[in-house]
Design goal:
13 strands; single chain; three-stranded antiparallel beta sheet; DUF6065; 18% helix; alpha+beta; five-stranded antiparallel beta sheet; Deoxyuridine 5'-Triphosphate Nucleotidohydrolase, Chain A; 24% strand; globular
């Protein structure tokens, strides 16, 4: 299954698989934030587009296009613009993306990477047919607060998802006891977690030696059995590589 990008001629498009690391996660005691597997998987669940140049942007709080000031020594086509007004900073993504039929791209900011004074907006783009580029937009949340993007910093994150899948879901709410096996597994986990947290402060306890419970990380049920055959503890995405153009009609 191919995800193809056609860079716009004359542009600079920097793409990479999203990395695991986050500065705030690195700064947690003993880097404990990386023990949360769902965070790790989300961090690496797509590809990033990187800033080709450094700049600082400031919003004055008003709604006009002129309300955002962008300061940089870079060439204008390497910088975002104030296109919509209303405190929205717009990055042009200089590439046409193609996904297989029925697959969209979810487009947003890098997961779990907050930025003070500005919030990434999210979009879903039908990239299996549209001959259009898309933009990546960020909304200022504080006026008069300079926001800096470094050269090589990700400003866009994307991954494929099936079009219509969310509409095929039939949401329902049921009593937990209507699923006896699941209820028993949950209660075993809940009781075990309560015991673990009670023991954790005690010197020499098994919980203190273990430091944290690893069942979900290891893909195990409370009784130690495997949870599913395709459990992931990490993702390994392919990098974008230079392809060989196909001849028309081939």
């Amino acid at each position: 299954m191919r995800l193809t990008c056609y860079p716009i001629p004359g542009s600079e498009l920097l793409l990479r698989p999203a990395p695991l690391s986050r500065p705030w996660m690195e700064a947690t005691p003993d880097r404990f934030a990386y023990r949360c597997l769902p965070l790790n998987i989300a961090n690496t669940h797509g590809w990033e587009v990187l800033c080709p140049a450094e700049f600082t942007a400031t919003w004055d709080g008003s709604g006009g296009k002129e309300a955002i000031r962008i300061e940089s020594d870079a060439l204008p086509h390497h910088l975002p613009v104030s296109h919509f007004g209303s405190g929205v900073l717009t990055f042009h993504v200089p590439g046409l993306f193609r996904t297989p039929p029925g697959l969209n791209l979810w487009v947003g900011g890098p997961p779990n990477l907050p930025k003070d004074g500005i919030q990434a907006l999210s979009a879903v783009v039908e990239t299996d047919w549209a001959p259009y580029t898309f933009t990546m937009n960020w909304l200022f949340t504080r006026p008069h607060h300079p926001v800096r993007f470094a050269k090589g910093e990700p400003f866009c994150f994307f991954f494929p998802l099936s079009r219509g899948l969310v509409e095929e879901m039939e949401p329902e709410v049921l009593p937990l006891d209507s699923a006896p096996e699941l209820a028993a597994q949950y209660r075993a986990w809940s009781e075990g977690r309560a015991d673990f947290l009670e023991e954790l402060p005690r010197e020499g306890s098994a919980a203190r030696a273990e430091e944290w419970q690893k069942a979900y990380f290891r893909g195990r049920l409370p009784d130690g059995r495997p949870g599913c055959p395709d459990h992931r503890t990490k993702l390994s995405l392919n990098s974008f590589r230079l392809g060989v153009p196909q001849k028309p009609g081939s």
